[in-house]
Specification:
CATH class: Alpha Beta
Number of domains: 1
Largest sheet: 4 strands, mixed
Strand order of the largest sheet: 1-2-4-3
Radius of gyration: 14 Å
Strand content: 15-25%
């Protein structure tokens, strides 16, 4: 089950059913099923608080992902996305509406085990994002 929620902002994701189908297909393509997956759309301030409190990072970010799965082939977690950061990055990187989709699939890929700490991992993550963005 995929749920779209908001905290401290007004935001409505368009075409929710289309996004859910795409995310389920993405998980399946990566060899996973989705259990309970929550996307929580929020402000920079809200996500900064989470970043500080739970990860010890004092920086703005567009996404924080928490893995709640116990089954290695099941995706379950909470993905917090700063709508403000995504909007600014869409302008900065000239990615338009696709920036939100990129961040959404980025979080799902983290839950599927992909990392982005070094150059090679970042390149693989970006390639996977691009591959799955073609399917929405």
């Amino acid at each position: 089950m995929i749920t779209f929620l908001t905290e401290d902002i007004t935001f409505g994701l368009k075409e929710k059913l289309k996004h859910k189908a795409w995310l389920k297909d993405t998980a399946k393509a990566e060899g996973f099923t989705i259990g309970e997956l929550n996307y929580i759309f929020c402000s920079d301030a809200y996500l900064l608080d989470i970043n500080q409190k739970y990860l010890g990072h004092d920086t703005l970010t567009d996404i924080v992902t928490f893995d709640n799965s116990e089954d290695p082939k099941m995706i379950e977690g909470d993905i917090f996305i700063s709508v403000e950061r995504v909007r600014e990055n869409a302008i900065k990187f000239d990615t338009g509406d696709s920036e939100l989709k990129r961040v959404m699939v980025h979080g799902l890929l983290h839950l599927a085990g992909y990392k982005d700490k070094d150059k090679a991992q970042k390149e693989l993550m970006r390639n996977k994002e691009n591959e799955h963005l073609k399917n929405i």
